[in-house]
Structures are given as C-alpha cells and as structure tokens.
Specification:
Largest sheet of chain B: none
CATH topology of the largest domain in chain A: Rossmann fold
Helix content of chain B: over 70%
Radius of gyration of chain B: 20 Å
Strand order of the largest sheet of chain A: 6-7-8-3-9-10
Oligomer: heterodimer
CATH superfamily of chain B: ABC transporter involved in vitamin B12 uptake, BtuC
Number of helices of chain A: 9
Distance between the termini of chain A: 20 Å
Structural class of chain A: alpha/beta
Structural class of chain B: mainly alpha
Largest sheet of chain A: 6 strands, mixed
Number of strands of chain A: 12
CATH architecture of chain B: Orthogonal Bundle
CATH superfamily of the largest domain in chain A: P-loop containing nucleotide triphosphate hydrolases
Number of domains of chain B: 1
Largest interface: A-B, 31 and 21 residues
Number of domains of chain A: 2
Distance between the termini of chain B: 35 Å
Shape of chain B: globular
C-alpha cells in the first residue's frame, strides 16, 4: 500500500526524518509512535501528499506519489488532520467535502453522496450533528466530524493524526472499535498516537520514530516491552498484560526513581 | 424549501421590480404611469410614447443607470464573497484590499496616456482591461506586503490594503496634477458614481460580469473547501493553488471592470456577504448567488437615494453613500471579532 525508499522529509531546510525505508502492506494497521517532535505529523503529511518529500521515493498503491493528481490522491488516501480549524459551515457540508474527489467536474454532490455522508456521520456517532455549525461544536464533536469526512472519501488508506485525542474514554473506545472494524473490512490505516496503551490496543504494528530515524519497528508483542519503551521515551516504563485482551499495556512510574544506570543499550531495529 | 432558496427567489423577483421602480423618481417630473408606459414600450410591450424627450430620460438615462448600478453591485458583492472565502478573512472586499483603488489607478494611467477609446466599441474599450491589470497588481502588492510578517494575519491584510489604497490614491492625484487635460476624466474615480453613465457602460461591463460571475458561481464548491484552509483543501483533492488563482483573477476581473465604469465604490462587497450569511449560512453555493442578487439590489437603491436625497437635482456620489453605510458596519465587524477573540 505504502512504500518509502530512502525518503527524507521536513519543512524547507529543516530535515525532520532522514533516509526512511518502510513498507506498509494492504490491510496493515500501523501505529506511528515517538516522543513529541519526532516527525509523526510530518511523515503523515508527506504520505498524504501535502508535503513533498525532500528526497527519495514515496509509492502509494503502486504509483509514485508525485505522479498522482490531487483528486486521485484523495481517492487513495484519506486524512484525519490533527489541527483543523472548523469553518462556519454546516457539519453535513463539511462531511460532504469528503466526496469532492469523486464528483464530476461540473456536477454537484448527489443524493447518494449525501447518504454516504450521513452514514459516515452515523458510524462515528455524529448523526445528531448534521445540521449544526462546525465552528460551534466541542473539540470531541469536531474530531468525529473529521473522522466522518475521511470515511466519506472511501479511500483504501486512512491516515490519522491523533484522531482520538480530546475524546472522552467512551468515545475513544468507540473510535478504536470503528478503526478495528474498518480494518477487518480491508482498510489500511496509519495512525499517529501519543497514548501508548491505546496504540497497543488498536494497532498491530508499531513504528517508533526518534531523532530523525525509525528507532523501532515491529509487531506490538515484539516491540512493546519495558526495555524498548523505557529506552525510547527515556523514562522508566513498566509493561503488564491487559486483563481482558492480553495485550501489553504501559505504566509510567513517576516517583519510583529514575532508570538504573546500567540501562539497556540502543533498541534493536528490525 | 430551504432558507437559501427562499431568499434567492425573493431576491431574484425583487431585482427586475426594483429596476422598474428606480426609473420612476428623478429631477424631471414624469408621472409614474407615463414612465411605466415608456418602459413597456422600450421592451416592445406597448406603442412608442408621444414625447421622445421623456423616452430619452426614462430609457436612455434612468433605466440604463439602474441596470448598471444593479450589475456593478452584483459584481462587487460576488468579488467580496470570493475574496472573503479565499483569504478566509471576513474583512476583505475589493475596497478594503486596495484592489478597487488599484483598478482606478490602472484606468487613470490608461486615460492619462491617451489609451482610452470609450464609447466606440464597447468590447474594445481598454479601460476595464487596464482596470483589471491595476486590480491584480494592487492585489499582489497587498498580499506580498501582508506576508512580509511571519504569517498572514487578518488585520494585517486589511492594513496592507489601506496603505496600498492610500498610496495609489496619491498616485492618481499626481497623474491628475501632471495632466490637466484628463482631470475631468479621472476625477470621478476617487469616489464612485453612476452620474452620466449609459447603455454604453453597461455593454462595456457586462462581458466582464458574465465571465467573472460564471467562474465564481462555478467554483462555489471549491470556495467551501478553501474556507478550510489550503492544507486541508489539498488533502481532500483540490488543486488549491490553481483554484485560488482562478478565483482571485475572477474577483479582480469583477472589481477592475466595476471600477472602470463606475469608479471606486466601497463596502458593497464587505457588507453584502455578511448579511447573506446571517440569513442562510456560509455555504458558498447559495451564498455566491444570493450575495450577487442582494448586492445588485443594495447598490441600485443606494444610487436611487444618492440622486434623490438632495433637493434641486444635486447628486451625492453613490460611493459616499456606501461608505457612510459601510464604515460603521466595518467597525461593528471589528468589534465583534475583538469580543470573540
């Protein structure tokens, strides 16, 4: 689905990530992790085609990213951006924009487009918002609208940037279930997540970015360990099993003393 | 029926009706019944009137002026709607951005250089073209000036527009001083008016109105996307740079041609989109259409007021009237924004 070859990304002169080589298979469910400022958002913007790579080759569904026209790209990859200022438009109008890449040049949105937008709103739990003004929504409601808009694009690849941040626990669980359900139906997703535990629950593979490189990459069970996490985040992190799902969960230990002096060496990259 | 389509229907009916009504008042005392008969004869619906002098007043002076005011108002309101959408700035309009004054300078320059051939061939009249060039040049200058800071702030943009407009007004005054013979031609651009305009001006303006408004109405969906910011618009599949350029040129086209036939008329493009948004929301499909219809009405009736307000056939420039209306409105917007922030 996604292939990066010797890719460097950044803004202007500032290189954020160097010499990346990554492949995401169709149907993959990937969490993009790393400390603040490690380049998660920058990489997502590059994958979405909003920020051309400084060097290297990005291939999306077998086609070089730079050869795709904006509409083609939006049909392949949908984004849920982290920072998006809500406009003074109705929610339904915003969700309908997900259909923009699929309507004909002169034709307008059809009833079918409208139905798909309403369905997507329902799936994200925002059906009651359709006639509200986007700039009058709460932060959590707005995130649901952005998610619905991305689903309306019907793209095979979904790029999420902190899509669950600002949601209360119930909404977070709903969003996670939505993602797992869609993934089971064939959607490929790359999701930048700060919350370690949410990442462990909603992703199958985790890629950790640090200091401009991929510090660690592998299936959740392999990389989500005390050693790796403590090393990457430079603080002591304990890992236990989720009581119901058996997946690893991380625990910070502030006040329990810093990492022992004989900390493990650099994490292996796979 | 939605609010938007109800509003469109009312405004669309009010347009022709207002043009007819605007032909009734004026310094020459013509009974309403007779004026209506003359109008009907002009449309081929009645036999020609007995007095050709009255027919000239009603058809040649009042009707053409009403149609021109309506068309220019529609164009300015559309341009304002487009500028506000593209720049995501509720304070933008051809006047506050300095685009109108840029157009006036372009047209003045053409006139001072003797490049104008008005009333010969409407389509070949170079004034609107020079107006467009001046409008685009002023717009580019304003955008560059506003960006010289780190980010494009909303108030900075308007400040840059005011600075550019002031500078260009001075340039127009300079042209006037250098070239005494063109004074009478140039002077009306400082404060816009429809005094003495006729069907020739309507013919000059209409092609630009048709082209500019077609582009903006057809790009309504793109305006919605651009109102999210170009980064998001791109993610959704819009070629944001191309769309923005197309819309900026279309809006400049409307502003430039409007100035070439009527001078600088401020605030129509600022006030009208705000009024329409209050009625029906900010979706650009209905917004562009209703703004055009309401802009036509607003300027038409402003012009009727401008030419009937003072006794003895003395006229106010309509630009004075719209500024009297728009200035306080602008302050209100600023105040509300300050309270919201």
């Amino acid at each position: 689905m996604i292939r990066l070859e010797n890719v460097s990304v950044g803004h202007g002169d500032r290189v954020v990530l160097r010499d990346l080589n990554l492949t995401v298979e169709p149907g993959g469910l990937v969490g993009l992790m790393g400390p603040n400022g490690s380049g998660k958002t920058t990489l997502l913007l590059t994958l979405a085609g909003a920020l051309p790579p400084l060097e290297g080759r990005v291939t999306l569904a077998g086609r070089p990213l730079e050869s795709l026209r904006p509409r083609e790209r939006a049909r392949l990859a949908a984004s849920v951006p982290q920072h998006a200022e809500p406009p003074g438009l109705k929610v339904l109008s915003v969700v309908l924009m997900g259909r923009y890449a699929r309507v004909s040049f002169l034709g307008g949105y059809t009833d079918e487009d409208r139905d798909k937008a309403l369905d997507a709103l329902e799936e994200t739990g925002g059906e009651a918002l359709a006639d509200r003004r986007a700039d009058e929504l709460s932060g959590g409601e707005w995130r649901r609208v952005l998610m619905a808009r991305a689903l309306t694009q019907e793209a095979d690849l979904l790029l999420l940037d902190e899509a669950a941040s600002g949601l209360d626990p119930a909404r977070q669980a709903e969003a996670a279930e939505l993602l797992l359900r869609r993934n089971a139906a064939g959607l490929t997703a790359v999701s930048a997540i700060h919350d370690l535990n949410l990442a462990a629950l909603t992703c199958r593979r985790l890629i950790f970015l640090k200091n401009g490189r991929v510090a660690l990459d592998g299936p959740v069970h392999d990389v989500f360990t005390e050693t790796h996490l403590s090393e990457i985040y430079e603080t002591r992190i304990l890992v236990s099993r989720h009581p119901l799902l058996g997946l690893p969960q991380a625990h910070l230990a502030p006040g329990a003393g810093s990492l022992p002096h004989d900390a493990p060496g650099p994490g292996r990259t796979r | 029926m939605t609010n938007a389509s109800r509003a469109a229907l009312v405004l669309a009916v009010a347009g022709p009706l207002s043009i007819v009504l605007a032909c009734l008042p004026g310094p020459a005392p013509i009974p309403a019944r007779e004026a209506l008969t003359i109008l009907a004869s002009g449309l081929g619906l009645a036999s020609p009137p007995p007095d050709p002098a009255l027919a000239t007043v009603v058809l040649g002076i009042r009707a053409s002026r009403a149609v021109l005011a309506y068309a220019v108002g529609a164009g300015l309101a559309l341009a304002g709607t487009a500028f506000q959408g593209i720049l995501r700035n509720p304070l933008a309009d051809p006047f506050t951005l300095g685009v109108s004054t840029g157009a006036a300078f372009g047209a003045s320059l053409a006139l001072a250089l003797g490049l104008s051939a008005p009333a010969l061939l409407p389509l070949a009249d170079p004034l609107p073209f020079f107006g467009l060039l001046g409008a685009l040049a002023a717009l580019l200058a304003v955008l560059a000036l506003a960006r010289s800071g780190r980010e494009l702030r909303r108030e900075t943009l308007v400040l840059a527009g005011v600075v550019t407009a002031t500078f260009l007004s001075a340039c127009i005054a300079l042209l006037k001083a250098l070239d005494e013979s063109s004074v009478s031609g140039i002077v009306f651009w400082i404060m816009g008016s429809f005094q003495g305009r006729g069907w020739g001006h309507v013919l000059v303006y209409l092609p630009y109105l048709a082209l500019g408004s077609t582009i903006i109405l057809a790009q309504a969906r793109e305006l919605d996307l651009l109102s999210l910011g170009s980064a998001q618009a791109r993610l959704l599949g819009l070629n944001a740079d191309r769309s923005r350029l197309l819309l900026l040129v279309a809006a400049s086209l409307l502003s430039g041609a409007a100035v070439a036939v009527s001078g600088v008329i401020g605030f129509v493009g600022l006030v009208v989109p705000h009024l329409v948004r209050r009625i029906q929301g900010a979706e650009h499909g209905p917004l562009t259409l209703n703004a055009a219809l309401l802009g036509g009405l607003l300027l038409l009736w402003s012009d009727v007021l401008a030419r009937t307000l003072l006794p003895g056939g003395v006229e106010l420039p309509v630009g004075v009237l719209t500024a009297l209306l728009g200035g306080p409105f602008f302050c209100l917007l600023l105040k509300r924004r300050a309270e919201a922030a």
